């Protein structure tokens, strides 16, 4: 059975002057999967992701995201995706509730839907007593969970997560992945970059970027088998070692 | 526009939660409007004059008392040594030296002609120029009195032939500088608040990264820009109103002669143009430091090239063009015309058109330059 593609990328390239950050990558992401995007710092992961989100215009290559063309229908794509950047990007001087209302509002949720979602979200995150607190006063792990929930508040087809669990403790990371699984259950495809190899194991398929190219793309078990090793850590070392580019 | 409403609610919450920004916005202009007009008074007072009197006669004493009683001069010393007077100038204690020669009174009585000498310390150009001309005026007056006195003693045989020029100052009869300066300074304050606050706002979102989260949403560029413009437009109106009614009218007693609605109409348009400038700066700047420096550079030029302190007519031809490309110039003109002169719409029609041009160009430029995709 042909699986439905939600992202289809072919020859996508980004050059900054003489420097080729992303070098003609080609891959597909299927509906409902958790697609892990791995690579050393400076391998081009974030650049690739930013292009797919419509934040950065590609130098060349083609891509469709959620069925829309990356060049001509950028704004249509934006109604269908959620994005959580490396930098925490909720408003620290707004409360939990206000952030939810604001982002829900600009994604065009109706008043009743907004009320319902914000109540559901606060309850599922267990933030009832913090609902009217400024987001700036929350611990990092809570902020990240909130940011993720806000990124999927409009039920996008795909959510892009750029190192969502950086600097978060193991327990909160585990809870974060519970949120990701729940999103997948709601038909949201997850595209995630990470440096944690235990998280890589949670993904259905993994692409490994080295120096702007995709060096490997398969399921975690196939990758381990192919390299004849027991852990994703070793797969990562084997591939990342071949890099010529200096990491940042 | 539902999206716009969410943006506005968010902006206002953020602005009113900012404990540093809020007093800056409302208190700073009020305090400045109370202080600055005192410094923008062109009338020169307390000019230090050193009198070197070699004559020490009734006439010379009359002249000196006339100078002192004018209210503009302070007598540093009264002496008969020019050298000492000059050393006082060198020590910056005296601004002017008036030297009255020997036989001042005798010569006047006999020849009716006598020269006096004025030396001016020109370090402070304004003080020197105005001081010198005040002093000449007093001398002329003194001269006139003497001539009349002498003529009288000659039984009025020679009738005096001279032309007296009488001035009357329209629109500001007592040449009160406050009436002239306060409305213009208010324009400057509103300009500074508007330009700085607005340009810093978007850049701040760039710095903390929230703009990226906005840019992945399907929000329309012009809606986002409007969401930034409207709050500062309202704040600008508020700041102006407080300055205009509380300080200018209430404290300085400047009652506008013209139509206040007309003035507000122009203010509304001016703020759109000004905030467009602020937005434009913020779309180019990467961080708040850059935005602040660029905004500062332009606001400085806007202020000094606006005809606030010096009339544009006396600038060189090329500088006039800079003044003409400066939105502040037009608002200061309109402000003075409507408040002091009571000009109506047809007098400031051109000002409206020009400001409309600024508003359209700056805002469209800002929207075009704001990119959701870099």
From TrEMBL, chain A:
Superkingdom field: Bacteria
Location of the ABC transporter domain: 7-236
Cited Pfam families: ABC_tran
Keywords: ATP-binding, Nucleotide-binding
GO molecular function: ATP binding
SMART domains per record: AAA
InterPro entries associated with the record: AAA+_ATPase (IPR003593), ABC_transporter-like_ATP-bd (IPR003439), P-loop_NTPase (IPR027417)
Name of this protein: ABC transporter ATP-binding protein
Organism: Flagellimonas okinawensis
Lineage, broadest ranks: Bacteria, Pseudomonadati, Bacteroidota, Flavobacteriia, Flavobacteriales
From TrEMBL, chain B:
Residue spans crossing the bilayer: 21-40, 180-203, 230-255, 261-281, 293-312, 348-368
Location relative to the cell: Cell membrane
Pfam family, one: ABC2_membrane_3
Membrane topology, as annotated: Multi-pass membrane protein
Key words of the record: Cell membrane, Membrane, Transmembrane, Transmembrane helix, Transport
Keyword Repeat: no
Top-level taxonomic group: Bacteria
Family of this protein: Belongs to the ABC-2 integral membrane protein family.
Protein name: ABC transporter permease
Species of origin: Flagellimonas okinawensis
